[in-house]
Amino acid sequence: MTHLPPAVRRLSDQRSVPPSQTPLFGRQAQVAALIALINDGPSLVTITGTGGIGKTRLAVEVSRRLHHQPVFVQLADTDRADVMLTLARAIDMARASTSQAAGRIGPGAGSAVLVLDTFDRLLGADHPVEAAGIIWEAWQQAPDLVLMVTSRTRLILRDERVMPLSGLGLDPDGPAVEMFRERSLAVGGDLSDPSQDDAIVAICRLLRGVPLAIELAAARTVQLPPLALLARLRSPGAGHLLGVLASGAIEAPIRQRSMRATMSWSYQLLHSTQQALFRRLGVFVGSFSLEAAEWVCPGVNPEGSTLAPGAVLDSIGAVVDLHLLEPAGGDPEFPRFALLDVPRAYAVELLEMSGEAEESPRPAAELVSGLRRPGSSRVDVHSGEQVARPG
Question: How crowded is the C-beta side of 305, counted as CA atoms within 13 Å?
């Protein structure tokens, strides 16, 4: 008898959609859009977004509302040695479900939807291109198969339809505040004092409406009322922000028990030069220009590889794809970028731990106060703006 890895043996249990443990806040438009995409015809849809943004929760909700036969596969905890076999077996199961439904109901009816949750797990494997290729080949060979993927970054396939998720709405009566209140009540927090209302809104805005961050912050209301919690989140030092956003539910996956853990998951998907760039971008307070990043970030990293100035743009693209870095608008001719508060806190923490801040030929004090290039203007890393050089 052929030996099957544990991950493959568990697939029969994973075919059903996992139960929803919490209400769905503020994603009605995204649910409707995904269902419309899938019902419009066979498709490959990838839900992307930063860690903790709610990709899995959205995929679960959509799977439950579809008339298709769902095959739901969680890839996050699959052993690396088993991951490719698990993927291939899951595709075979979904194709079989589609064929069986077509036989019972008729051609073109009852197609399966294969949900591959946390596909970014494969990006850390040895052959990420092969993994995406398997999906592409399966889709071509089974045209009735619907594929819904959740991943921190897109698969980069030609006919892939990407739905990026951003944070929940931040109005005082919006879903982010509603979620904060519900999760606080669930752990025994007391939000009855109306003088705390503005602080709750401010907390949700500081956390950019990221559901996992809101849940972790709301759990702290047992110890700290919202005003004290907000002060802690705003206090100097990366450790304060990340320290508050920790101690998640014990049944949650490790990567979802703290924002430090979920940032680490994304960080590990970067190559060493991209990791060095991410760490060094932590010196920027607010948005910065590409030119400023090209001056601050290049150099040899502790792993021994070198980030060249010409490679900064591609590395920034990789960090943007993982939603650790966001475009920040500005002049269309001179684009700007920004690290949001949680990713920046993690970058600063890593920069300090790496020793690069002290060992770099551009010391941290010099980076933070600004840089001067011979024959060029000074680069202010707080704003990324070019400042006229004194005469």
Answer: 9
